[in-house]
Amino acid sequence: PSAPRHTNRLINEKSPYLLQHAHNPVDWYPWGQEAFEKAKRENKVIFLSVGYSTCHWCHVMEEESFKSKDIGEIMNKHFVCIKVDREERPDVDKVYMTFVQATSGGGGWPMSVWLTPDLKPFAGGTYFPPEDGFHRVGFRTVLLRIAEQWEENKDALLESSHRILEALRQTSEIHVQGQESPPPSKEVMDTCFQQLSRSYDEDYGGFSQSPKFPTPVNLNFLFTYWALHRTTPEGARALQMALHTLKMMAHGGIHDHIGQGFHRYSTDQHWHVPHFEKMLYDQGQLAAVYSRAFQISGDEFFASVARDILLYVSRDLSDQVGGFYSAEDADSYPTTTSGEKREGAFCVWEAEELQALLPDPVEGAREGITLGDVFMHHYGVKETGNVDPMQDPHQELKGKNVLIAQCSPELTAAKFGLEPGRLDALLQECRHRLATARAQRPRPHLDTKMLAAWNGLMISGFAQAGAALAEQGYVHRAAQAAAFLKTHLFDPTSGRLLRSCYRGKDNSVEQSAVPIQGFLEDYVFVIQALFDLYEASLEQSWLEWALHLQHMQDKLFWDPKGFAYFSNEAGDPSLLLRLKGDQDGAEPTANSVTVTNLLRAACYSGHMDWVEKAGQILAAFSERLQKIPIALPEMARATAIFHHTLKQVVICGDPQGEDTKEMLHCVRSVFSPNKVLMLADGDSAGFLYRQLPFLASLERKDGKATAYLCSNFTCSLPVTSVQELRGMLSP
Fold it and tell me: How many CA atoms lie within 13 A of 160 on its CB side?
C-alpha cells in the first residue's frame, strides 16, 4: 500500500479502533485535556464519535464520511473532533448514549454527538449517510446546520444543553426510596418468568422475532427459576424455554459450524443470517450457559457446544501470554485480490465451491451421492444461495450460503441410507476440509485489546466448563488467564485493577502512556471469575485476591447515600454524570452480578456487612425489579439467592484423595444456584481457616472425606457417601 496521505494524533494511541482512524483526513483527538482546551480556547463545538473496531456501521461511516476530504475539511474547520473506543471508555460511552437514547428514542454505534466546549451534549444520533437521501438528512448537512446554529444561536444551544443535562441527571438517578427493603423474591421471580414467557418464540426459541440476541442473562434466570420450581408446570416450561433456545442457536447460522464460536446476533427469527462479528463477552457467557445446560440435562450435545466455543477462543482469541482478545470483525476481503471488504465474506459459501471441495462418492449411500450432496442437504445449502434478500440489504451475500443445520442427524442419515454414527463421521470430515479451505481466505480484523471485564467473563466460562465437564485443561486455562490479569491489569502498589492492555510488537503486552483505571464492571466480572476459579481449582490465592478486590470496589464505587455502586469512580471532571447501569443486556449490568458476588464473598469471609450491601442494592432497584424485572433478569435471579441464603458446601478431606475427588465431582456435576463450595483440607494456617474459624470444628468422619451443608456458618450432620451428598444438594 502507498504511504498514507494524512496522519492525525490517533497514531499515538494503543486502541485498535482509534488506530483504524489515524489516517483519516479528520483532525481527530483522543478523549482528553488537549481536545477540551482547544474547544474552549477557540470556542468551538466538539464532535464526539464513539464506536469500536469490529462495528460494521462504524466502518461504513468511516468509508463514506471520515475518509472524505471534503467532509473532513468541514469537520476540521468548524469542530474539535474526538474519537472514543467505547470498549476502552465505557464511562464516556454510557453518559452520551444516555443522552442519545433520551432525545432520539434509539441508540447504537457509531454514536455521533455534538457537545458544547464544556462537554454538555445538545445534538446527537448514530450512523448518518454522507449526503441527504429520501428518508434522512446527510452528515454533511447536519455538520453545516450545527455550525450555523452555533454561530447564530449559541446562547440558545447552551441553555438547551444545560436543561437537557439537568433532566438526564434527574431521570438517570437510582437510589433507595426512604426505608425501602429488598423486594419480595417470589413476586420478582414470577413476574420476570411471566414477562419472558410472553416474549418467548415457541418455534425457534429466543425472546423476540428479529433481530435475535443470545441473551445469556435470560437463560441463566430460567435455569435458576427451574431449580426453585422443579416440580411445577412453570418450572418445566422455564427449562424447556432455555434448552430449546440453546439448541436452536447451536443449529443456527449464528453458530459458526466450521470455525466454532458464536456470532454477535441473528438478523432474522430463525437464528440463520447473523451479524458476523464475534465478541469475547458472548463466548465467555455462552460457554458457561451451555455447561449449565449439560449439568442440568446430562445431554452431551450441550457439552459439545461448550467445548466448541472454548476451542475457538483458545485458538483465535488467545494471547500467547495468557490473556484473551476482545473480538473478530464481521467484515473481511473475499479474496486476497479484493479491494473491498464484505460482511461475512470469511464465513459464507457458494454451492459450487462446496461441491468442488467435497466431490467424493459416499460408500453405502445411493449411487452418485457425494459428500457435497450430504453436507449441502444437512446444512441447508442452495444452488442460488440461502440468504433471504430482506436480510441482505447491500447484496453482500447474494448467491452465498450461511450454514444452518436444518435437519436432525437421524433425518439426514435416513434420506441417504446411512447409519447416524457414520453420518457424524462424514460431516466431521466435511467440516475439517472446509476449515482448511477457509484458512486460505483473508481473515477478518482481530481486535487485540485485552479488557479486564471481558477477560473476567471468559475466565468464568473456562472455569465453569472445567468444573461441570470435569475438564482440568479448561481450569488450567482459566488460571493462566487470571495470572495474566494479575501481572498486566493489576497495580499491586495501589491495589487497583486497570481497564485494558494491548498486544504490541513481537507479541509483547503493552500499556498506554496513561493507563485507564478499572471501572465497576472490571472489578465485578473479575471478582466473579476468581470465585468461579476457586470453586473449580480450590486454589485459595484466587479467593484471597477476590476479597481484596471486593474491598477496593466498595471503596471506589459504593454510593453510601443512595446505595448500589456507581459505574465509575468520582473525581473525573470530564464526566458529567455518575451513572448506575439499570439493564442486563449483552452483558449483565455490574450491580446485578455484584449482588451474588457479595453473598459469595460473605460466605468465604464471614463479613456479614456484604450481605447487608447486597440487600441495599436490591432495595435501590426495587421499583424496577417489581415492575419490569425482564430488564434485569440477572438481578431478579439474585433476589432469589439473597432470600434463600447461600448454602456453604464444605468438603473435609485430602485434596489428592480419591474419596475427596469423588465428592468434589458430585458437587460440581449438580446445578444448584444457591451454593458455594469450599474445601477444608485441615491446613489451619490456610487463608480460609483464618477467615472462617468454624471450619476448624469440622472433621472427617471415620477417616473418610466428609461433606457438611452449612447455612450462616451452622452446619448439618456430616455425610460420607456421594449418594447422600447428591440428595443434600437437591432443593
Answer: 15
Please report the DSSP string for 507-520 in residue order.
G-EE--SSPPBP-H
Whole-angstrom Cα distance, residue 719 to residue 706? 6
Using DSSP, state whether 454 is helix, strand or coil. helix
Residue with cell 482448511: 436
pLDDT in tens, 111-145: 999 999 999 999 999 999 999 988 889 999 999 99
Which residue is listed with cell 427469527? 269
d(CA 100, CA 121): 9
Q: Which three cell numbers stand for residue 606?
A: 464471614
Say if CB 537 and CB 562 are below 8 A apart. no
Report the C-alpha gap between 383 and 314 in whole angstroms.
Answer: 34
Residue with cell 439537568: 166
d(CA 699, CA 382): 65
**C-alpha cell, 295:** 449439568
Residue 506 burial by Cβ neighbours in a 10 Å radius (0-12, 13-18, 19+) = exposed
Beta-carbon contacts of residue 63 (< 8 Å; ≥ 6 apart): none
Both ends of the chain: CA-CA distance in Å?
64
b/e burial code for range 438-459 (CB count within 10 A of at least 16 → b): beeeeebbbbbbbbbbbbbbbb
Paired with 115 in beta bridges are: 46, 121
Which residues have C-beta within 8 Å of that of residue 614, sequence separation ≥ 6?
594, 595, 596, 598, 599, 602, 638, 642
- Give the separation between CA 508 and CA 319, rounded to whole angstroms: 9
Residue type, 9: R
pLDDT at 682: 81
pLDDT digits (tens, 9 = 90+) for 444-482: 999 999 999 999 999 999 999 999 999 999 999 999 999
| Residues 281 and 217: beta-carbon distance below 8 Å | no
Q: Is the predicted pLDDT of residue 238 greater than 60, yes or no?
A: yes
Residue 156's nearest CA partner among 119, 113, 123 is 123
The x, y and z cell numbers of residue 81, run together, are 473532533
Residues 601, 547 contacting (CB under 8 angstroms): yes
Sheet holding 446-447, edge to edge: 278-279, 327-328, 446-447
Instruction: Write the DSSP string, 169-185.
Output: HHHT-----TT--PPPH
Q: Which residues pair with 271 in a beta bridge?
A: none
Q: Which residue in the block uniquely carries the three cell numbers 446527537?
A: 124
Identity at 322, one-letter amino acid code: G
Measured between alpha carbons, how far is 366 from 361 in angstroms, rounded to an integer?
Answer: 9
593 within 8 A of 581, measured Cβ to Cβ: no
Cis peptide leading into residue 110 (ω within 30°): yes
CA-to-CA distance for 274 and 213, rounded, in angstroms? Answer: 10
Q: What are phi and psi of 372, to 5 degrees?
A: -60, -40
Alpha helix locations (H) across 8-68?
A: 16-20, 33-42, 56-61
What number of other Cβ atoms are within 10 A of residue 560's Cβ? Answer: 7
What are the angstrom distances between the C-alpha of 42 and each of 8, 70, 656?
19, 22, 70
Running DSSP on this structure, what letter comes out for residue 649? E
Residue type, 74: I
pLDDT value of position 671: 95
The partner residues of 370 in beta bridges, in order of sequence, read: 361
Distance CA 413, CA 89 (A): 51
